[in-house]
Design a protein that fits this description.
By secondary structure, the chain is mainly alpha-helical. The protein has helices at about 1-15, 35-60, 75-90, 105-130, and strands at about 65, 100. The protein has a two-stranded antiparallel sheet.
């Protein structure tokens, strides 16, 4: 069941990033409020998606992050800790108060890579659309 849920989360994240690579040309300026909102929701989707992946891995008793307050914290505490770690990793801040362990290192590395490539994809797409006019 958790594998299916993880797959659904990954599919949702991929579908939200699909807009970066769609060939449709915008009918507005390149730096607009629409793009700002789009990227805000894109980052929010990716951050929540990876937080759910961390949480699902934790539910499967895979140790992925350490540094939480106590091992007997509630489900919501685990969710918000995962969300916090996901946001810090996605934006490459990395305070060090929560550290990935085991398989969590690979997931965190993938999330950091996604966090770096989203702005790059936006710049490349903008330049390609500008050259095609």
């Amino acid at each position: 069941m958790t594998v299916m849920m993880t797959g659904a989360v990954v599919i949702c994240m991929i579908m939200s990033m699909k807009g970066l690579f769609s060939p449709a040309r915008p009918h507005h300026r390149y730096l607009s409020f629409t793009y700002f909102i789009y990227f805000g929701f894109l980052y929010l989707t990716i951050m929540i998606g990876f937080a759910l992946i961390y949480l699902l891995m934790d539910m499967m008793n895979i140790i992925i992050i350490t540094g939480e307050n106590s091992p007997a914290i509630t489900y919501w505490d685990k969710f918000f800790t995962s969300l916090y770690f996901s946001g810090i990793t996605l934006f490459s801040v990395g305070y060090g108060d929560i550290v990935p362990e085991g398989a969590g290192r690979w997931v965190a590395m993938l999330e950091a890579w996604v966090g770096y490539t989203i702005p790059t994809a936006f710049v490349v797409r903008t330049m390609l659309e500008k050259d095609s006019r």
